[in-house]
Design a protein that fits this description.
The protein has 162 residues and is an alpha+beta fold. The chain has one domain. Helix content is 45%, strand content 25%. It has 2 helices and 8 strands; from the N terminus they run H-E-E-H-E-E-E-E-E-E. It has helices at residues 2-52, 79-100; strands at residues 72-73, 76-77, 105-110, 114-116, 119-121, 124-125, 138-148, 151-161. The longest helix is centred in the first third of the chain and has 51 residues, at 2-52. The radius of gyration is 25 Å and the shape is elongated. The model has no long low-confidence stretch (mean pLDDT 85).
């Protein structure tokens, strides 16, 4: 009977080792996939923020010929480009995602609501979302500083996965 007890003990040790290895592999895979999503959101968020806070392409772009959306002129926010970006996003949000080359949703806004050409621009991005009601599974916040109306303001870009 002593031999059976010893064999059962070895089986328990091997089973425990396999169980612990399986749980460890599961957690490593889970953490790694979350890290990939986080890195992807951060990378694409930075690219979108860089694009928005540039002059765009062509430099005097409009809704019909834009290849790169940018709202700056001489390193300051150009209200005309800001309004064009707002209108383009409002009317053709999916197209702006294609221009930014992203699969993620985004929402861009300045620290204080901006009144541009008599249009209240609280934020620009996915319709039905604003800076206070956004709830997402994976969310990344990109912060930049920019000059608007000769004042330094904070620009935020939220990018997320639905």
């Amino acid at each position: 009977m002593n031999k059976k007890a010893q064999a059962w003990g070895i089986d328990l040790i091997i089973a425990s080792f396999i169980f612990i290895a399986g749980i460890t592999a599961f957690y490593l895979f889970s953490l790694n996939s979350e890290g990939k999503i986080t890195n992807s959101l951060l990378s694409e968020g930075n690219l979108i923020a860089d694009s928005i806070l540039s002059e765009g392409s062509p430099i005097n772009w409009n809704q019909n010929d834009v290849s790169k959306i940018g709202i700056l002129t001489s390193n300051k926010i150009n209200e005309t480009k800001l309004v064009m970006f707002y209108n383009l996003t409002k009317n053709r949000y999916g197209e702006t995602k294609s221009i930014f080359n992203t699969k993620y949703d985004y929402y861009f806004f300045l620290a204080d609501s901006v009144l541009a050409n008599s249009i209240a621009v609280e934020g620009i991005g996915k319709q039905g979302v604003n800076s206070t009601t956004l709830i997402a599974k994976n969310l990344m916040k990109i912060t930049r500083f920019v000059v608007y109306q000769d004042k330094l303001v904070t620009a935020y870009l939220y990018i997320w996965e639905e």
